[in-house]
């Protein structure tokens, strides 16, 4: 693919800036120099035609010149392909997950290979064989435990005896099953068997568990207990904390202690104490008034509360013998008339 050395900016690409896709071609060999004259003539014709197509004006030519002679950025190649084409050999191993997933499935490849073999496509068969090899060795095929195909084992033809035996077996299995009839009962319907009744009438047998008498065996005689068992077998001896070994001994702090007046008062016996002679509920002067109560001045609220309340008796009427007009207008029911009659009349 030939690429133009001139870009829209009108600058030439240097050799160190030129990308890989636009490589500089080698010069023409000597054998092809005879075609150079014809090519140059055609190029001149093209240039002349190009000049005739455009109207040359000074203003247009001035505007066509770039402002900056040097490119600010690296010029891009004007090739047909935007990216370079990478050629990967077929024998290169694939390790990435995307490459592993991109491989076609084994079953699909097998069906395509069968179709290629039927059509007689040798090139397609070789390509599919290569893909099958890589698909079998991929990680996902290993996880699925995909096994390579094996040639099917050809079954041997059956002999006449084997065929006859098979037909006999098929005829036997094709016959319907005969349902067996239930056996006849020994007794009639509703009749009890004597053997069963005798068995049920027998009392249940209980085996008494007799415990053997305790005997000192030889193993028990020769037994030697361990240190731990002997230690656990001893009874626990606890010290009695409540018993004082020297009851007559007095602490030195108690000897130097000075009791207070209250303790001395409480230490006296109850018969001597004056407060215990008189009951606590009875005072010396029960009708005496305290001096604070005599000096107290009662408030208006306390005086109001101290006055006795007058309650009106609502049950006593002013004219007890007066009859209400509603009672005069009322008509007595037969039940009231019956109840109004004196008893025994």
From TrEMBL:
<dbReference type="InterPro" id="IPR042401">
    <property type="entry name" value="SPMAP2-like"/>
</dbReference>
<keyword id="KW-0677">Repeat</keyword>
<dbReference type="Pfam" id="PF14912">
    <property type="entry name" value="THEG"/>
</dbReference>
<protein>
    <recommendedName>
        <fullName>Testicular haploid expressed gene protein-like</fullName>
    </recommendedName>
</protein>
<feature type="region of interest" description="Disordered">
    <location>
        <begin position="180"/>
        <end position="204"/>
    </location>
</feature>
<dbReference type="InterPro" id="IPR006623">
    <property type="entry name" value="THEG"/>
</dbReference>
């Amino acid at each position: 693919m030939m690429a133009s050395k001139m870009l829209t900016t009108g600058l030439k690409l240097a050799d160190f800036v030129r990308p890989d896709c636009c490589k500089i071609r080698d010069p023409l060999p000597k054998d092809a120099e005879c075609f150079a004259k014809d090519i140059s003539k055609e190029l001149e014709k093209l240039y002349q035609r190009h000049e005739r197509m455009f109207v040359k004006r000074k203003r247009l030519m001035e505007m066509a010149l770039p402002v900056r002679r040097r490119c600010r950025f690296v010029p891009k190649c004007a090739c047909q392909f935007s990216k370079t084409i990478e050629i990967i050999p077929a024998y290169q191993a694939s390790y990435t997950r995307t490459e592993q997933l991109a491989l076609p499935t084994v079953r699909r490849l097998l069906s395509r290979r069968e179709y290629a073999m039927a059509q007689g496509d040798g090139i397609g068969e070789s390509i599919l064989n290569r893909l099958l090899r890589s698909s079998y060795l991929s990680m996902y095929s290993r996880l699925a435990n995909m096994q390579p195909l094996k040639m099917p084992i050809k079954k041997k033809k059956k002999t006449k005896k084997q065929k006859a035996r098979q037909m006999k077996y098929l005829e036997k299995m094709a016959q319907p099953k005969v349902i067996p009839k239930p056996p006849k009962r020994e007794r009639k319907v509703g009749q009890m068997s004597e053997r069963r009744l005798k068995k049920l009438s027998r009392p249940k047998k209980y085996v008494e568990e007799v415990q053997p008498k305790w005997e000192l065996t030889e193993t028990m005689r020769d037994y030697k207990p361990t240190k731990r068992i002997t230690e656990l077998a001893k009874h626990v001896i606890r010290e009695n904390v409540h018993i004082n070994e020297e009851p007559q001994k007095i602490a030195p702090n108690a000897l130097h202690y000075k009791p207070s007046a209250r303790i001395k008062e409480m230490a006296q016996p109850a018969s001597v104490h004056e407060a215990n002679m008189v009951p606590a509920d009875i005072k010396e002067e029960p009708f005496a008034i305290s001096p604070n109560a005599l000096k107290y001045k009662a408030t208006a609220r306390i005086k109001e509360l101290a006055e006795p309340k007058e309650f009106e008796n609502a049950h006593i009427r002013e004219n007890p013998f007066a009859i209400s007009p509603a009672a005069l207008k009322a008509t007595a029911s037969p039940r009231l008339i019956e109840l109004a009659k004196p008893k025994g009349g």
